[in-house]
Design a protein that fits this description.
121 residues; alpha+beta; Endonuclease, Chain A; two-stranded antiparallel sheet; 3 helices; 6 strands; globular
Length: 121
């Protein structure tokens, strides 16, 4: 039996999003519930290049909210493993100071999931 594809009404992409995990999909459902226009992984930021100009490190935030001009990265990893993402967020802020970006941690997502009773979906 094929998984049911969720239809998003506030999604602004041309093709259906392919989420990396369930938490991203649940976050998209919350954005849709509040009719907040969103895009999924619309931009990759190059953080480092080698001497030949090849990309060595890049980062693609999970969501972009155009009305807020805000990129959102969601991490539900254990706090001990979040250090690498925090470093990438810091690099984006240093290299692209005009970019607004927010990292939502597992505790933030759990609060949202509890508020919206997402455990039953």
């Amino acid at each position: 039996m094929a998984a049911k594809e969720t239809k998003f009404t506030s999604y602004m992409g041309a093709t259906p999003p392919q989420f990396a995990n369930r938490s991203e999909e649940e976050c998209a459902k919350i954005l849709d519930y509040y009719r907040i226009p969103w895009m999924y992984e619309p931009r990759t930021f190059v953080l480092e290049r080698d001497a030949d100009g090849n990309v060595v490190e890049a980062f693609t935030p999970d969501f972009y909210l155009p009305e807020q001009d805000l990129f959102v990265e969601l991490t539900t990893m254990k706090q001990a493993h979040v250090t690498k993402k925090n470093m990438k967020i810091r690099k984006i802020r240093e290299r692209f100071p005009e970019i607004n970006i927010k990292l939502f941690y597992k505790k933030d997502f759990l609060k949202l999931a509890q508020k919206f009773d997402l455990s039953h979906e």
